[in-house]
Specification:
Rossmann fold; five-stranded parallel sheet; two-stranded antiparallel ribbon; 9 helices; 14% strand; globular
Length: 195
């Protein structure tokens, strides 16, 4: 059997990447959630832990658990800190993804990652899908999901590649504006990649 196609799914915070990937999972498509995997590796990989503490201090882990609020408070307001964090985490996630990918036996897989372009991991994928949603919808979703204020959401958005750049670099765009049905858009792509 041929190796599966590697399909990347990305989009800005609050665009609905998780919602879209859940639809693919219901279609029995394997999904590698890079952001969730990165959190797991930050908690469990000793090399990452050592380097995160060196950058963010002892408070990066509390009671032996990753202190995401402490890290986010620094990373989303300090470009040097977020760049250093990405340089620590991205190569290990990249390696982890390929270990996972080599075990898959299907026509295509999904790699979901917020920083697909920023991490350069899009270069190893066969196609890229961006999830697009209006800015106000994204802000509202993120405020509700993460229980944070508008300013915190906007700070996170400022640290991500603008949507127009992601959309221009994508092979496909899924509109997740809360009005346009998602299922037909996903099923169309599923049909393309399964043939």
């Amino acid at each position: 059997m041929n190796k599966p196609l590697k399909i990347g799914i990305t989009g800005g915070i609050g665009s609905g990447k998780t919602t879209v990937t859940k639809i693919f999972e219901h279609l029995a498509i394997p999904v590698y959630q890079a952001d969730e995997r990165a959190k797991w590796l930050m908690q469990n990989n000793t090399e990452i832990r050592k380097n995160v503490i060196a950058i963010f201090g002892k408070n990066a882990y509390q009671n032996n658990t990753l202190n995401r609020k402490h890290i986010a408070a620094i990373a989303f307001t300090n470009k040097d800190a977020i760049n250093a964090l990405n340089q620590i985490v991205h190569p290990i996630v990249f390696h982890d993804f390929f270990e996972w990918y080599n075990q898959q036996k299907c026509t295509y897989i999904i790699k979901e990652a917020a920083l697909l372009f920023e991490s350069k991991s899009y270069l190893d994928l066969d196609a890229i899908v961006t999830i697009d949603a209006p800015m106000e919808v994204r802000i509202s979703r993120t405020k509700q999901r993460d229980n944070i204020d508008r300013e915190s959401v906007i700070n996170r958005i400022k640290n991500q590649l603008p949507d127009d750049i992601k959309n221009a670099a994508a092979d496909y765009i899924i509109l997740n504006d809360g009005k346009t049905p998602l299922l037909p858009q996903v099923l169309l792509l599923d049909q393309i990649w399964k043939t």
